[in-house]
Design goal:
Largest sheet of chain B: 4 strands, mixed
CATH architecture of the largest domain in chain A: 6 Propeller
CATH architecture of chain B: 2-Layer Sandwich
Largest interface: A-B, 48 and 32 residues
CATH superfamily of chain B: OmpA-like domain
Distance between the termini of chain B: 26 Å
Number of strands of chain B: 4
Shape of chain A: elongated
CATH topology of the largest domain in chain A: Neuraminidase
Number of domains of chain A: 2
Number of helices of chain B: 6
Number of strands of chain A: 30
Structural class of chain B: alpha+beta
Strand content of chain A: 35-45%
Shape of chain B: globular
Helix content of chain B: 40-55%
Distance between the termini of chain A: 25 Å
CATH class of chain B: Alpha Beta
Number of domains of chain B: 1
Strand content of chain B: 5-15%
Number of helices of chain A: 4
Largest sheet of chain A: 6 strands, mixed
CATH class of the largest domain in chain A: Mainly Beta
CATH topology of chain B: 60s Ribosomal Protein L30, Chain: A
CATH superfamily of the largest domain in chain A: TolB, C-terminal domain
Order of helices and strands of chain B: HHHEHEHEHE
Oligomer: heterodimer
Radius of gyration of chain B: 16 Å
Strand order of the largest sheet of chain B: 1-4-2-3
Strand order of the largest sheet of chain A: 1-6-5-4-2-3
Amino acid sequence: MNNSATSFVSAVALALAVALGSGVPARAELNVDITQGFVEPLPVAITDFYAETLEESKTGKDLAGVISADLERSGLFRPIDHGAFIQDAASLRKGPRFSDWRLINAQALIQGSVEMQPDGRLRVNFRLWDVFAEQQMTGLAYFTTPSNWRRVAHIVADVIYKRLTGEDGYFDTRLVYVAESGPQNRRVKRLGIMDQDGENHRFLTAGNELVLTPRFSPTTQEITYLSYIGEIPRVYLFNLNTGQQEVLGDFPGMTFAPRFSPDGNKVIMSLADDGNSEIFTMDLRTRGVKRLTSHPAIDTSPSYSPDGRRIAFNSDRGGSQQLYVMDSDGGNVRRISFNQGRYATPVWSPRGDLVAFTRMSNGEFYIGVMRPDGSGERMLTKGFLVEGPTWAPNGRVLSYFRQTPADSRGRVTSKVYTIDLTGFNERELATPIDASDPAWSPLIP
Amino acid sequence: MRFKLLTLFAAALLVAACETSPEETAAVDTSGVVEQPAAQPVSPGGPTPGSQEDLLLNVGDRVFFAFDRSDLNSDSRATLEKLASWMTTYQNVTITIEGHCDERGTREYNLALGERRSDAARDYLVALGVDGGRVTTISYGKERPAVLGSNEDAWAQNRRDVFVVN
């Protein structure tokens, strides 16, 4: 898993093919083995990005800070305290003294520089060094508007993550979620959006109507979600560029539980008619509607496999709430959850190899994963109420929300968490107010 | 003032109950048609006939469900029979049935379950002769608990249909 190619160079990135050192890059090199359950975080030295002016220096320090925080939060890396650094920034410009970095046990060294261009753009470059092999592992430069420095930091962190783990990064992403306030019986819910590290937070709706279960489009800057506008629960689209909301279709009953198809061309959702919930798709281009289930039981929470050929969903057709998989035309329905308890909210991994879910058993809620055939089931976390897993685009990290039981005054708190697929590195994702229903974006195009 | 009114109503209901013989009650149950109006304006200053307050006092504005169930028990059916009769009296009234769930389920499934609960009550009203066009349903899933708290008591009270006069 460590032989990652360097084909991640995007149009905005310029590969610094010229390494300072000489020789062919070694292949038996530094990498993080992330196939094990618990990983000892790799010690890395992330130096402040060098700059000539005071203002650029601040940006250089901020860039290193965001990269450092991203890598640390993954649980796979341990950034070394800057106070331990021996080699100073000025001399590092001329090349790393690897012995200095080995002394503080840095396995990898990240250096960079920031320079304002005559055209007003910011030039950011960085190099990733394997300290023990004394090799440059990668080096790239980016040109961007100065206000966009945070995204560049996330992109750099993604490159480093991929180079060292062999897996795609997930730092240049956002989460949409439901921000909550007020007592449970009059809870105010608003759509909120933020970078995956909680920065650049903003609210998308004002809280005048109940909103639930937002989900990102895989291809466009759109979100599909449930809103009670006019006290009619319906599935809507929210355009992040224009801020416009649009109801999807005109159905006789409630539409809910929406998700995009992997190609972004369809929304799959439930429609409740005469009390019975069935699964439908709507083609966003033709607005054509297709019914996929036909059963007196509850059929809801559909989620496509990444190849679009299968759909996982939630049904109580067997007598209790369980997970099922069907072909994308609605045929070949089979149950995949068989352990004790009730199962809900199946969400197919972007890698296709796993389905994440919520399980309820003996008064507790669990977030777990299983293979799409139902085998290999394992729980990642549990609590009084944990619900609604969503995958980071690399299929390695999940997010979900955790609600506490009501206290003596009837108050609850609800927070969004992230957790590694191994079940380790569970962390709260700080939000301005209470939070639920997180949904991870794809990598920002 | 409000307390006095309630007492007055309770007394009036008691009298009404005494006037109905057990046999007559049984006949009402089997036929599904209630001839005696369930509610009469009792005194000046009482609830407006056909209002939400009237419904609350003389019918009851909610029925309850078992965990993860949407079938109506005998108490629920009795309440809905009173509601059907009340709606027969007040022919211009339309209502919304809100279906609700406790917090011990997942959000989307509970939206479906709340829909099922509201529809179960609506179906029964229609079977009792209420015009379906007068009854709309909406599910709030677990989003609008009636009682705050994370215990069996609160959950039992939150698994409900609520009848709202439009």
